[in-house]
């Protein structure tokens, strides 16, 4: 896997990202989570715990935010006016490091690079789900160093 360095996007990215519509990020996240749900990554108890609960993911240095809710057996974009039961916030590099399994959420949290607010029990459940989700093969192959 490619090593992702710790970085922060330049301030203009945050300024621009915060002015753009946020619903496309929520739709993309909901679509990805629904694909994982179809592969049965989530168990019945996890779906029950997530049911009706808004989870918000903020990428601080990009100025973007995605809010999702699990309702009717599917992940859906949540309204930005709905208060989250759980919120994650980190720079893009921290999320990328989790994605490629370079860093785990606990390490990022204890180094204050991942902020988690809200329902502690739900936070642990979502953190454990993040640890279990595997990258699709096509993306994993692209992240392999070319040698």
Query: How large is the radius of gyration?
Result: 15 Å
Strand order of the largest sheet: 3-2-1-4-5
Net shape: globular
Question: How much of the polypeptide forms β-strand, as a percent range?
Answer: 15-25%
Multimerization status? single chain
Pfam family, one: SCP2
Family: Belongs to the UbiT family.
GO biological process, one term: ubiquinone biosynthetic process
Organism: Quisquiliibacterium transsilvanicum
Characterise the protein shown here.
By secondary structure, the protein is an alpha+beta fold. The chain has one domain: Nonspecific Lipid-transfer Protein, Chain A. It contains 7 helices and 5 strands, in the order αααββββααβαα. A 5-stranded mixed beta sheet has the order 3-2-1-4-5. Pathway: Cofactor biosynthesis; ubiquinone biosynthesis. Belongs to the UbiT family. Required for O(2)-independent ubiquinone (coenzyme Q) biosynthesis. Likely functions as an accessory factor.
